[in-house]
Design brief:
With about 220 residues, the protein is an alpha/beta fold. It is about 35% helix and about 20% strand. Its cofactor is Zn(2+); Co(2+); a divalent metal cation; Fe(2+).
Length: about 220
């Protein structure tokens, strides 16, 4: 089954409780939470206090996407705040294996994110230590961007790598996914779809999630 992870970066922060309740009622699988520091990416988003507040109002797993430099400084804080999956960027970690190992030891599920231009070879010596790979199909930092042409091939290549080297790893794809391209992304190999503006900027959040899932599953 394809999993849907709404990205709350595109939610209405003046009415966040309602938006979370809407996606819960649509039976999504997790909440994707982007954390940006203004250094690794040219934007600043939410932090630990907001994540703690979200954890109080939902039982959905929290998928914390750390778009920050030196993420190892804050891993324990994000896990204590309620993070389940902790995703760090390979590009931001000088000692990636050590960071992944610390996530696991602290009780989180380690995940590694790759920017669009980052080669898959960075996973060669870490793929057996992680639970998920997040492949970015836009350059990270802002919601509402368009899917980069040709990224389906990279999704397919990554899926093949996962199947050969560690089939238990989930492949998450994030960036510009909407009603028009979700089928191609899933056919290429995605297990988890992150969608932000496609969901929260639609007229009917629950109906949109239902239609995205139908498209993803080829119904």
């Amino acid at each position: 089954m394809i999993m849907i992870a709404p990205s709350i970066l595109s939610a209405d922060f003046t009415n966040l409780l309602k938006d979370i309740r809407d996606v819960e009622q649509a039976n999504v699988n997790m909440l994707h939470i982007d954390v940006m520091d203004g250094h690794f990416v040219p934007n600043i988003s939410i932090g630990i206090p907001v994540i703690k507040s979200i954890k109080k109002i939902t039982e959905l797993p929290l998928d914390i996407h750390l778009m920050i430099i030196k993420p190892e400084r804050y891993i324990e804080d994000f896990i204590n705040a309620g993070g389940n999956y902790i995703t760090v960027h390979a590009e931001a970690c000088l000692h990636l294996h050590r960071v992944v190992e610390s996530i696991r030891k602290m009780g989180g599920k380690p995940s590694v994110a790759l920017n669009p231009a980052t080669p898959l070879s960075v996973l060669d010596y870490i793929i057996n230590e992680i639970d998920m790979v997040l492949l970015m199909t836009v350059n990270p930092g802002f919601g509402g961007q368009s899917f980069i042409n040709g990224m389906e091939k990279k999704i397919w290549e990554l899926k093949n790598k996962i199947q050969k080297e560690n089939p238990r790893v989930r492949l998450q794809v994030d960036g510009g996914i909407n009603m028009e391209n979700i089928s191609d992304v899933v056919k290429a190999g995605a297990d988890i779809i992150v969608a932000g503006s496609a969901i929260f900027e639609s007229r009917n959040v629950k109906e949109t999630i239902y239609k995205l899932r139908k498209k993803a599953e080829g119904i």
